[in-house]
Amino acid sequence: MILGVMIIPPLPTPFDSKGYLDSEAFRALAQAVEPHVDGLLFYGSNGEGVHLSKDERRAGLAAQSPTKPVWVGLMEETLAQAQVALEEAAALGARSLVTPPRYYESQLGTEGFLNYYRTLAETGKGEIWLYHVPQNTKVQLPLPVIAELSKHPGITGIKDSSGDLARMAFYASQKLSLELYTGSAPNFLGALALGAKGGIMAVANLAPKPYKMLLSAWQAGKIAEAQALQNRLEPFGRGLAAGGVVLLKQALRHLGLPGGYPRPPYGAESPAWASFKPILEEFRAEGWTVA
């Protein structure tokens, strides 16, 4: 299924102050953010999917009733684990956003990467999207592997969160048959110029409106307007990227949204909060935040 241009948040998974999954808050957060965006990603990097047990993962998805397109992150180490997660995503009608196995990645080789993704795609359990996020996985998904996987009819998209515009240029030059989305807000406009259709970005949990404005300006050929917006948004995207999920959840709580807390051993407050808060407040005064 071909999608339109979209701004999508990788929704955080709320835990309470003791570190327990808060399914009610998870549902409430999704319902609060969804009207402002074009779809939702559960269990992406900001969703702390790697911190969940199988039962918690299932319970978190069971709490959801989205009305817009949905993705579910799969960050598993083996095919057996991934196939279970794939079934759960398919039950929600979601596309699966899949990182490569990482712990023994050096022993996979090209054929191992290809076999992992092709096997998942051939289950027929929904669309498979590649997820390149080396800052978290410490794995570089090889460009030739991506080019080869793009030929599979069940592999339909890619989210590249590396911020590496050279990779975006490669995807565009090869005319890959993949829906291309960036996860990097600091160079969102650069990614659009190189063929990205939209963004699946942490900033969309807090302030999707200005990024949708930027996307609309770019589509309309209003390049100067898009550039001016990117310049204004850059400190916001860069600051949130530096603070990660701890800062994101702290910002959501500050806005009165049920973002919850990171799961221990990660702390409740980010050292980046003091510098990020004034930018967030400026955006709220502008009417750009979700609350």
Question: Can you tag this structure with a few keywords?
Answer:
single chain, 291 residues, alpha/beta, TIM Barrel, 9-stranded parallel sheet, 9 strands, 45% helix, schiff base
- Name of the top-level CATH class: Alpha Beta
What oligomeric state best describes the polypeptide chains here? single chain
- Uncertain runs are none
The ordered string of helix (H) and strand (E) elements is: EEHEHEHEHEHHEHEHEHHH
- Kindly state the mean pLDDT as a whole number? 95
What is the helix tally? 11
* Percent range for β-strand residues: 5-15%
> Helicity, in percent?
40-55%
Radius of gyration: 18 Å
SSE order and pairing:
Elements: E1 7-8, E2 10-11, H1 23-33, E3 40-42, H2 54-62, E4 70-74, H3 79-91, E5 95-98, H4 109-121, E6 128-132, H5 134-137, H6 143-149, E7 155-160, H7 165-174, E8 179-182, H8 188-193, E9 198-200, H9 208-219, H10 223-254, H11 273-285
Parallel strand pairs: 1-9, 2-3, 3-4, 4-5, 5-6, 6-7, 7-8, 8-9
Helix pairs in contact: 9-10, 10-11
